[in-house]
Structures are given as structure tokens and as C-alpha cells.
Specification:
Helix 1 (70-84) packs across helix 2 (152-163). This protein has 3 helices and 7 strands. The protein is globular and about 40 Å long. It has 205 residues and is of the alpha/beta class. It is 18% helix and 20% strand.
Length: 205
């Protein structure tokens, strides 16, 4: 029997009382680019489960650690190239990660044991301003027995957080968590970014 998978993603730590002024993208279906009127924690160095921010420039460098399987690495590379390559971001898949200094790899993907039912989680590891992060980590759950292997929608969703895209309820105006017009940022298995997400990325980077 085919069962539609509901994906559970972490959205970061509780927001602080400090509210940043968000730039509303008029043409987009919703402004779901951090910071928004409904999601504006200060970008900071975090740990697993903490907040995400915008990446620090339009060149998006990514590295897939050895804890991921070959199939997972291929899925992530295809998702990043297919979905983020056509935006104003310049995607570069790196053969090794840079973890310190002024030219850190923007997104580091790894496999890690997460809470049961969670597929992936994204957090900032090196904030450089109150809204920009030099390096995000994305962890995918090692235990795929109950939730299925990482697919392109999962990789698209978590990479979206690493460039600043939020879930629908955190957008302005707020949208439903399952709103498929938000592409892979919805909780459904939607493949691709969706027009609104692309507009938000292109207006930011």
C-alpha cells in the first residue's frame, strides 16, 4: 500500500523577543526568506536544533561528509544542482570541506542519529552578522528504517533552510505547513523549489 510520507523537520530554537525588520518581496506568494515578520531570531552560532539564517554570499559551496552513503551523496548533489543551480545562487560541490577560516564551506551535510521520525535538521555553526551565517550544518537521520531514505525533496528542504527559507507558518503572510505552492519547503514530498521560493532567493542573493 502506498503511504504518502509526512516529513518532520526542525525549524530552529524558540524565537527571541528581538524582531528584525524584514524586506517583503512584493511579487512572491509569501516572504519566507529569513528574517520574516513571523521568524526573526538573531543569527548566531548554534548547535544541532538551533536556528538557521541566510548564507553569507551568492556562491553556495557544499560538501557531503563520509558519514553519508554514496546514494545519499548523489541525491544531495542532484537536488542542489537541479533546484538551486537555476536560481541566482552559484552552486559548487566541493571534494573536501573547509571548516575554519575566511572561506568556510557554506553547507556541510552529514548523517547523524536524530530523534525518531525526523529526517533532517539544519543549523548555523558560524554566524558572521545578525542575519548571515558563514557555515550551516545539515544532518540527515542515520536511521532510515521507519522514515525511508533521503530523497531529493528532503535535500531541497534542508538546503532551503541553509539559504534562509522558512516553513509556511513562518512566512509573511503565514501559509499552511502543507502548502505545496512553497515547493519543497512544505511538509509534503514536493520536488523543486516553487516560484515563490525562487523569487525570494533571487531577490536576496
Amino acid at each position: 500500500m502506498a503511504i504518502k510520507r509526512k516529513t518532520i523537520f526542525a525549524i530552529g530554537a524558540a524565537t527571541t523577543a528581538l524582531v528584525a525588520t524584514a524586506t517583503v518581496v512584493q511579487a512572491a506568494y509569501t516572504d519566507n526568506m529569513y528574517p520574516t515578520a513571523n521568524y526573526s531570531p538573531t543569527c548566531r552560532d548554534g548547535d544541532m536544533g538551533d536556528t538557521f539564517c541566510q548564507t553569507d554570499n551568492k556562491t553556495l559551496t557544499v560538501y557531503r561528509e563520509g558519514s553519508l552513503t554514496s546514494a545519499e551523496k548523489n541525491t544531495i548533489a542532484r537536488a542542489v544542482k537541479d533546484y538551486y543551480g537555476p536560481t541566482d545562487l552559484t552552486v559548487k560541490i566541493e571534494s573536501r570541506g573547509v571548516y575554519a577560516g575566511g572561506a568556510e564551506t557554506d553547507v556541510i551535510y552529514k548523517a547523524k542519529t536524530l530523534a525518531r521520525g525526523k529526517i533532517g535538521i539544519t543549523w548555523c555553526d558560524d554566524a558572521v552578522t545578525s542575519r548571515k551565517c558563514d557555515q550551516h550544518y545539515i544532518a540527515f537521520n542515520k536511521d532510515h528504517h521507519s522514515i525511508g531514505a533521503v530523497n531529493k525533496s528532503d535535500a531541497c528542504h534542508e538546503t532551503g533552510h541553509a539559504v534562509g527559507l522558512t516553513h509556511g507558518p513562518n512566512g509573511s503572510p503565514a501559509k499552511d505547513i502543507d502548502d505545496d505552492r512553497l515547493g519543497c519547503m512544505s511538509y509534503n514530498d514536493v520536488y523543486g523549489l516553487g516560484a515563490s521560493n525562487k523569487e525570494n532567493i533571487n531577490s536576496t542573493y
